[in-house]
# Entry
Amino acid sequence: MEKTLILGNKPEKWWIKDLGETDVLSVPNFSVGKNSDISNFVRELPKDIDCVVIDADSLYTENIELPLDLALQIRLMLRECLHTSLSSIIIVSDLSIEAFRDYGVKSMILMTRKVSLVQSEVVCEVIRNSAPLSPGEYVEGFLNLIKIEPQQKIEGRHSIANEWGAERLGSVVCPDRKSDIIPLKTSSSLYFRYCNLASLNADEVRGIINCKSQERIESKEIESKGVKFLLIDDEADKGWLKVLSVLMPDAEYDVWNTPIQSYDDINSEIRNNIKSRKYDLIFLDLRMAGVSEESVLNPEDFSGMRILRGIKKVNRGIQVIMLTATNKSWNLKALLDAGANGYYMKESPEYHFPVTYSEQNANALIETIEACLENSYLQDIVAGVAQLTLPADSECSDNIYNQLKIALSLILKAKTNADYAFAYISLEQVFEIATSSLIRQSWNNGRYEFFFTEDTHEKCRLIEGGKDKGLLDSAAQWKKVSAIYYQLYGGGDSTFSAKVEYLISLRNKYIHPGTEDKPVITQVDFQNLFDVIVLFLSVFK
Amino acid sequence: MADIVLIDDNSRDQRRSYGADYIDDGAYSDIIRHIERVNQSSDFTFLKTSKCVLIHDSLEDFINGHFDEHSHVAKDLIIHILDASHIPYVCFSDGHSYTDCDSDENIVSLKKSEFYIRLKDFLDCYKNTGVLQFLILAYGKNYRKVLVTKYVKALFQKFDSKRPADILTIADIKPAKSGEIHYMEKIIELSQPALGITYEDLLDYIEDNEVSVREFQSNINNIINSISLNGKNTYTWK
# Structure
């Protein structure tokens, strides 16, 4: 006889005595539906049992389905019970098998391999001939035979998908604390347990029972000191706030979790915070109106899309990561086109993604968050553009503004160094537009108005017939910019000239590298160039 | 006028999630009336003309335009009126994990999800037969099978130290002490009229004949099989 364990409350029964020396474990009075209590009991079972015998008739009378529950939990708790999950399960009852029908998936366990319902009269013989499942039989004869559905049909799907998604992210981000992410009641539900196993193959089952699965235990964290994020999700309390807080432990945050239809439904305090650039990053759920959006097909009709547009209207540069369970490419494209800076696909329990996908998905989210945090300066740049005072000449002003828009559109979508370089080159063009227009306009009575006398800038000046006619149009760009700045500002930042020379030479080296390697241009360079342009344009106030 | 009154704040539109939006769609409006917003100032005179009331046990008072999760005065008031008027009621709530009745047979504890899952069968039964079958709410459409199985299990536990070939005695079947439920009597009640044998007849038969545990259990299991397949017992005791 294999290693056998009897779960029952009457060890004095005749057939248990006939079996001889066997371990008997008493079973508490679990109420119907108390999966978390049952799973706590099953978790404590020995891990090396070949045959589990459930003495159904000795268990709590009010809960007829309890033996089925126990059998199902033993099978589903593979990661906790290890080899015992593959044991041969024998339910002993003198009640007709009809008594155990009509309990949905719990009854279905009787149809799977090596789970049998036997009368006490034959139980000893059945036990003696029992053998545990092989990993392959576990997959073919159990996982592939049953299908467990969520209990609640409509809101349930929305809610469960959220909890499942948060749990999956938590399993990668904080495997040691994933039990804190969602309530035990949910994580121990039959549906969650089933979904956690459904994609396994025989080798993976073998790896788990031999404790060879390489589960990481270290948490992943993002440097988040000084970061403030806003989470807009009607299911924020379904684990999302917890998992994001674990991911960014030092960040401050605000949460909006009331179902809403549009941006204007958010309270004025949070809207003011968005507008005044108080947040570095916003996480926004696509379906903020809950169940009512289950059947939405047009991406524009999602509440999250309307909220995104509202956010971007008041703060185009703020970084927004969409949280969504949608897997429709047209939805994701529409969101990115509307200005979303990234998205995280909440994993759905309906699609049995392998563990490796969860890891890739979580890592992609971490990269997206890090990129967004690096780009949080963009909201200052966008706001800076809006506050610029441009030259009085309307043509020059229009051209500068259009060039700034081009540079902004490039930087807002920039992800690579090449993207940053092209945004940078585009931004530098503002100098070209401004200087050529201003110098042209400054021709007055046979001389240019812009000139200055410092030795280092002598070559800028046009000398004709011994007469100093001012700034030379063909002079180096940095000299022209510096000349205009110093003359109009009447002092100002004494290091301006050096900064401009460096920044413009960076652009020149990128465009005309010659035999050298092209320099790497980063978002920091873009930011520095933007600051200098702001300083330069400020002289027109 | 609807005979059945459902009072549930339904604050998170849970009826929809439980698949019971047919209530709000008015599909059963001839027999059930639903009320969501009440407080202690509400007019409850309509309760006295109702045949039964189904009420959310954690019903929140609707005060100043919103539900107050800390105020349940209206619910207590309603139960008081129902008790005084002897109108049967059912209390359901997410917080209840098991089904329980009080001494007046009111269902005072029922899980909300189970209540809504079973409500349609309860309403269909009333619509078709005019009977308020609360057992449907308590145990589901196939309540006979649930009850019989429960009683059979308890009955079998009384003689589970006996081997299948052992002979049954009356003492194995009758309650061991006063106050204990007559499980066999309950089983027979739920199996009539087709069973064709009374409780007393059965006791006499067991006393006069050598009935083995195996044979007795087989007969009882035929009752379970019959109710399971047909919704009621069609098996005649042999």
The mean pLDDT of chain A is 85. Residues 417-441 of chain A form the longest helix (25 residues). Residues 388-540 of chain A form one domain. The longest strand of chain A covers residues 319-324.
